[in-house]
């Protein structure tokens, strides 16, 4: 009489469970690898988008001008601000989430440098809801940067009005609403033509943004709502509005979220 | 007699920087006007009739190329100035038009101005270059058909498909064309490699760049020997052999 644990059905069953287990672990590992690979790829794309060569070289040209015009103070300030911004962007790009105060500093520097570059042809403001504590709030870095760039370099520079860019963080019930509003020419008018084909600057930013949000969702179960629209007033386009609804993540709740990739 | 010049660029800092650079490094150039976009640029050129135009590529109401299309461009010289535009720069290089990158290097500025002045006798040159540039800009990057070859005495507009091969000759390059013509150009083979590799040209040897379409046969050996359509025999260096075979397979 064979004991029950030597019966063919038991041995076979155990074997099957082990094999399925190994298969499952293997699949999950592959999935993780795939996600982190996608993340690296996306990070590179993002960094390329943020380190826009036009921005970099035109900023350097501005510094060159200040030097030759003997505006030494301005040259020095611009240079160190520029260096600080590049450092922040490089630093931020390695994290999926950063503290909101760091994000705001990056945005402010970026907007200041762009304002100097465009000879103060636009005003900008950054407003943070008093209910939000930036030092303990996590957000994905530089979600808005491509849209700010579009607003400044295409939306506003083509518009006759003096440019205004408003950046706001509003605390909603479970999310933080991150909103960017400009008074430029809108999405359709800011596209330009190359080889007869209209190029939508917006579309590249939107695609990368969507891809990024999807990946954030897959890796961290963080769902961020994103929308972009033209602001219309009695048929006339008066600007663009971009909204991100980011789940409120505070430091005490996700202590290890700021991990490196 | 000073040369009159106009600067067209949408960014204030870029115009000022260039103005400063010209004052410091090119005293023979006199900047008579500035403009911040295509429309203003057209106006300034018509009104001031300058001999030289420093032209930005990307402006809010169009590109520097758009501006040139809308004006008789045989009356002045152009130096393009851009911060970054890989596509346009490649097309500009193919047309042998002068350009500067921002922030501008003083030596390159002097060099570009000197070149423009040297060429002032050959009046139709710019027109020809710009028409090739315009043609090349119409199509996408890899469909460019023509290249301008600048020799000490003349300009040649050559269809890329008609180039058989290029051979290094110290700092010059001998470009061999279908009708057994060879043109000596003062560019290095490396520069031709960069310009022509998107069009099916392959660097097979330290001194040789060949058009893959112009190959009749390949005799394998340690490196091997290529027979070109015009019966020229070109050696393949041992280290380039695998690369060459790959390129050949990819191309056919």
Output the keywords:
heterodimer; A: 261 residues; alpha+beta; Heat Shock Protein 90; five-stranded mixed sheet; three-stranded antiparallel sheet; elongated; disordered C terminus; B: 252 residues; OB fold (Dihydrolipoamide Acetyltransferase, E2P); 2 domains; five-stranded antiparallel sheet; 8 helices
Could you please describe the fold and organization of this structure?
The complex is a heterodimer of chains A (261) and B (252). With 261 residues, chain A is of the alpha+beta class. Chain A has one domain: Heat Shock Protein 90 (2-Layer Sandwich), CATH 3.30.565.10. Chain A is 51% helix and 22% strand. In chain A, a hairpin with a 2-residue loop joins strand 6 and strand 7 (197-199). In chain A, helix 1 runs antiparallel to helix 7 (201-220). The longest helix of chain A has 43 residues, at 8-50. Chain A is elongated and about 100 Å long. In chain A, 29% of the residues are buried. Mean pLDDT of chain A is 84; it is low at 193-198 and 257-261. With 252 residues, chain B is an alpha/beta fold. Chain B folds into 2 domains: 3-138, Response regulator (Rossmann fold, 3-Layer(aba) Sandwich), CATH 3.40.50; 159-251, OB fold (Dihydrolipoamide Acetyltransferase, E2P), CATH 2.40.50. Chain B has helices spanning 12-25, 38-48, 64-69, 86-94, 106-118, 125-138, 189-196, 241-251; strands at residues 3-8, 29-35, 52-56, 58-59, 62-63, 77-82, 98-101, 146-150, 155-159, 163-169, 172-177, 182-185, 201-205, 208-211, 215-219, 225-228, 233-235. In chain B, strands 2-1-3-6-7 form a 5-stranded parallel β-sheet, with helices on both faces. In chain B, strands 12-11-10-14-13 form a 5-stranded antiparallel β-sheet. In chain B, a hairpin with a 4-residue loop joins strand 8 and strand 9 (155-159). Chain B starts with a strand and ends with a helix. The mean pLDDT of chain B is 87. Classes of the chains: A alpha+beta (261), B alpha/beta (252). Chains A and B meet through helix 2 of A and helix 1 of B.
């Amino acid at each position: 009489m064979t004991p029950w644990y030597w019966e063919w059905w038991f041995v076979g069953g155990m074997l099957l469970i082990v094999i399925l287990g190994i298969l499952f672990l293997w699949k999950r590992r592959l999935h993780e690898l795939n996600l982190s690979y996608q993340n690296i790829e996306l990070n590179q794309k993002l960094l390329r988008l943020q380190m826009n060569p036009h921005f970099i070289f035109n900023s350097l040209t501005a510094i060159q001008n200040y030097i030759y015009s003997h505006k030494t103070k301005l040259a020095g300030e611009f240079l160190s601000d520029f260096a600080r911004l590049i450092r922040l962007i490089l630093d931020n790009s390695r994290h999926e989430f950063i503290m909101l105060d760091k994000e705001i500093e990056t945005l402010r520097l970026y907007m200041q440098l762009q304002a100097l570059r465009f000879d103060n042809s636009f005003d900008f403001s950054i407003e943070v809801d008093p209910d939000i504590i930036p030092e303990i709030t996590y957000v994905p870095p530089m979600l808005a940067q491509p849209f700010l760039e579009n607003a400044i370099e295409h939306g506003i520079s083509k518009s006759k009005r003096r440019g205004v860019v408003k950046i706001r963080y509003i605390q909603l019930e479970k999310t933080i609403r991150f909103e960017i509003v400009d008074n430029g020419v809108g999405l359709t008018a800011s596209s330009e033509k190359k080889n007869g084909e209209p190029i939508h600057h917006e579309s590249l930013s939107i695609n990368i943004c969507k891809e990024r949000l999807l990946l954030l969702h897959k890796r961290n179960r963080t769902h961020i709502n994103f929308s972009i629209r033209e602001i219309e007033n009695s048929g006339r386009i008066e600007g663009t509005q971009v909204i991100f609804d980011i789940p409120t993540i505070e430091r005490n709740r996700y202590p290890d979220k700021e991990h490196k990739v | 007699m000073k040369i009159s010049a106009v600067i067209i660029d949408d960014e204030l800092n870029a115009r000022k920087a260039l103005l400063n650079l010209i004052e410091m490094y090119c005293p023979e150039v006199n900047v008579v006007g500035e403009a911040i976009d295509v429309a203003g640029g057209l106006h300034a050129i018509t009104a001031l009739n300058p001999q030289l135009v420093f032209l930005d590529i990307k402006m809010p109401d169009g590109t520097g190329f758009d501006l040139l299309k809308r004006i008789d461009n045989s009356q002045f010289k152009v130096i393009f100035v851009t911060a970054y535009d890989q596509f346009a720069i490649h097309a500009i290089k193919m047309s042998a038009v002068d350009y500067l990158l921002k922030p501008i290097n003083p030596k390159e500025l002097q060099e570009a101005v000197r070149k423009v002045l040297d060429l002032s006798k050959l009046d139709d040159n710019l027109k020809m270059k710009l028409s090739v540039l315009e043609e090349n800009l119409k199509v996408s990057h890899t469909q460019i058909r023509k290249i301008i070859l600048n020799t000490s005495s003349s300009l040649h507009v050559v269809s890329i498909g008609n180039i058989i091969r290029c051979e290094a000759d110290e700092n010059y390059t001998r470009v061999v064309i279908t009708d057994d013509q060879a043109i000596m150009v003062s560019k290095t083979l490396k520069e031709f490699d960069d310009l022509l590799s998107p069009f099916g040209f392959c660097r097979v040897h330290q001194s040789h760049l060949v058009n893959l379409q112009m190959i009749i046969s390949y005799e394998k050996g340690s490196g091997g020997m290529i027979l070109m359509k015009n019966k020229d025999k070109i050696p393949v260096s041992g280290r380039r052999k695998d690369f060459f075979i790959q390129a050949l397979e990819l191309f056919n």
